[in-house]
UniProtKB/TrEMBL annotation:
Residues 64-312 form the AB hydrolase-1 domain. GO terms for cellular component: membrane. Keywords: Hydrolase, Signal. This is Alpha/beta hydrolase. SUPFAM superfamilies: alpha/beta-Hydrolases.
Length: 324
């Protein structure tokens, strides 16, 4: 059943993406699975807006879950998770972080601290004081920072294959934002699909194609240079602002979900094959990280890569429900 939900929702987004080969950098022509609202903000002298979905259940249980997406994604890829959670009675808040998805793409100093404060402002606007927080990939780094800044807000922290389990500065050569910008400008449909196939999944399936269509579609936009620069600036944020040294400071219960075949390294293209083999091994990083977190439960998925909620939806959603 859950697999069918995933396929239907992925096709839903795919059709929207295919409607026009060139996607705007704020994804106006990508239809999200639920209605999107916008929070107006003022950052570093610029008026911006943060997109978010606020999905209410038919039979509410009085609890709220917030979902933080990864670097190469937006709220659209949480469709099956949102559906499963609302069926269980949860209100689900799904922001597109500033610089991502349907949100504005300003030239600012990107920081996890600033993004965390914006998400707190969103919760305050919606009148929500307590949440369970689920973060995937880069969203896991942000969720960790948010939980450290607002421990009274986060009742439980759920991390799905978070990046930043190791300090990339200690083994990945430094690249400036200007260097990363040049690399981002070379984005093509072929390069995106190759990266997604090799980095995110154990075995590629056609139902994942919509992720590539969205990820590569923006490269044809006239505004893509802005998108590419923001992508470079957020890469710099990940590289320069580690959270791995502060895992021991987390006060709330934590559940760490990892795909045992995940080998994600931010900046992997800059490494030798020898260095790649030493790092990004989540079957090793998962247990090591769980030991650093005082109240952590580790859940590992065999034969799964970087995105369990898409690659193994039935297993992930069942385990997620059992750990809420």
């Amino acid at each position: 059943m859950l697999k069918r939900i995933l396929v239907v929702l992925s096709v839903f987004v795919t059709l929207a993406a295919h409607a026009q080969d060139t996607l705007s950098v704020t994804l106006e022509n990508v239809k999200y699975p639920y209605p999107v609202s916008f929070l107006p903000l003022h950052m570093e002298g610029q008026d911006v807006r943060m997109a978010y979905m606020d999905v209410k259940p038919d039979k509410p249980n009085g609890k709220t879950i917030m979902l933080f997406h990864g670097k190469n994604f937006g709220g659209y890829y949480w469709a099956n998770v949102i559906k499963a959670l609302t069926l269980q009675g949860y209100r689900v808040i799904v922001p597109d972080q500033i610089g991502f998805g349907k949100s504005s793409k300003p030239y600012i100093h990107y920081s996890f601290h600033a993004l965390a404060r914006i998400n707190k402002a969103l919760l305050d606007t919606l009148g929500i004081s307590r949440i369970t927080l689920l973060g995937h990939s880069m969203g896991g780094m942000l969720a960790t920072r948010f939980s450290l800044m607002y421990p009274g807000v986060v009742q439980k922290l759920l991390l799905e294959d978070p990046i930043g389990l190791e300090d990339y500065r200690t083994f990945v050569p430094y690249n400036s934002a200007a260097d990363d910008y040049k690399a981002e400008l070379k984005t093509t449909h072929e390069s995106v699909k190759k990266y997604y196939e090799s980095s995110y999944f154990v075995k590629w399936k056609p139902e994942y194609d919509y992720l590539v269509e969205i990820g590569a579609g923006v490269a044809k936009s006239a505004d893509f240079p802005r998108y590419a620069m923001v992508a470079a600036l957020t890469f710099e944020m990940i590289y320069e602002q580690p959270v791995c040294y502060e895992f021991g400071m987390l006060k709330m219960p934590v559940v760490l979900f990892t795909g045992k075949e995940d080998k994600t390294i931010v900046g992997k293209a800059l490494l030798t094959d020898t260095e790649k083999a030493k790092h990004g091994q989540y079957k090793i990083l998962g247990p090591e990280t769980a030991k650093k977190i005082p109240r952590c439960k580790l859940i590992e998925f065999d034969n799964v890569g970087h995105i369990p909620h898409i690659e193994a939806p039935d297993r992930f959603l069942k385990t997620l429900a059992e750990n809420l």
